[in-house]
Amino acid sequence: MSSSLPWYARRARVIRPGALVACAALLAACGGDARPAQSAAAAPPDSAAADTSALAVARRQIGPEVRSAVPFHVRNYHGRFIAAAVPVQQWVDDPLREGVSVAPGGHEILILEMPDTSVTYAFTKPGLYVSDLPGTVRTGPNAPAEPDSSALRQLSGVEDINADGDAEVWAVQYGGPRHPYTWELRVYDRGGRALYQLAAKRRAGGTGIDPASWDASKSLESEPQIRAWMTNKVQALETQFGGAASASAPASAPADTSRTGSGG
User: By residue range, what is the domain housing residue 114?
Assistant: First the structure.
């Protein structure tokens, strides 16, 4: 049976460590699920081919479904880097959380790399997923048919978090297979090929973060500035969206092979 998933989503996710420490170390070593460099197809001689904006380049290399594309800089690397968001349109396995799937309605962030010219390119799948906006209902006759791109502006971004000259790409998921809801923030440093993860749960039966629930990857032990930024970000998101998150459908659930893998 052929898969209905796009080519970048059909790639096998072999990085399936059982803990934050293990997945951070593994990703730091191998850089995630990297697609080998390919030759770009010859572009037609029209105005679209001449468009060198990040969004136009990402759509040419990945596909027209790219919702947003943000260029960023990596020191000591020649070429172009783009964080491109593609919609998650059916349940997919989260490669960094064993037994957990990512729900439709969010986005996955791919890192597009064009090392020297536009002739070759590659992309990395570091495991960055963006939830739909808290409070969005994805079931019933009035449910929106497409992922909400406005979530990308509030639950993901690109910025130089530790002021070292390299931009990091970050993305947020919320939800879980059961209450209390969990916020999980992931930050990917392409220059150092490091992944940082920080998760925290809401207080049971209330709002605000449970102080005992913070769970950080080992990679954050040597990055206090990044950890402080991530902590502040999670707390700000709970303040902004906590009420809506508690009333919305879960953003993730236990993996179900009937909802993942091949479809048709």
Answer: 15-41+48-252
- Alpha-carbon span 157 to 155, nearest angstrom: 7
Instruction: Give the pair of three-digit tokens for residue 239.
Output: 């303040």
Instruction: Give how many domains the chain has, as a whole number.
Output: 1
pLDDT band of residue 23 (cuts 50, 70, 90) is very low
Question: Would you state the torsion angle of the CA atoms of residues 141, 144, 147, 152, taken in this order, to the nearest 10 degrees?
Answer: -140
Task: Return the closest-CA partner of residue 86 out of 191, 7, 198, 174.
Answer: 7
> Residue 172 is encoded by which pair of tokens?
């947020």
Evaluate whether residue 8 is within a structural domain. no
For the entire predicted model, the pTM comes to 0.74
Residue 247: strand, helix, or coil:
helix
Tell me if 111 is assigned to some domain.
Answer: yes
Evaluate if residue 116 carries a pLDDT over 70: no
Q: Among candidates 88, 50, 46, 45, which has minimal Cα distance to 67?
A: 88
Q: Is residue 3 part of a domain?
A: no
What's the pLDDT tens digit per position in 147-206?
556 678 889 999 999 999 899 999 999 875 555 688 999 999 998 899 999 999 988 777
| Torsion-angle region of 208 (φ positive above 0: left; ψ -120 to 50: alpha; else: beta) | left
In three-state secondary structure terms, 111 is: strand
In DSSP terms, 35 is beta-bridged to 123
Half-sphere exposure at residue 33, Cβ-oriented, CA atoms within 13 angstroms:
18
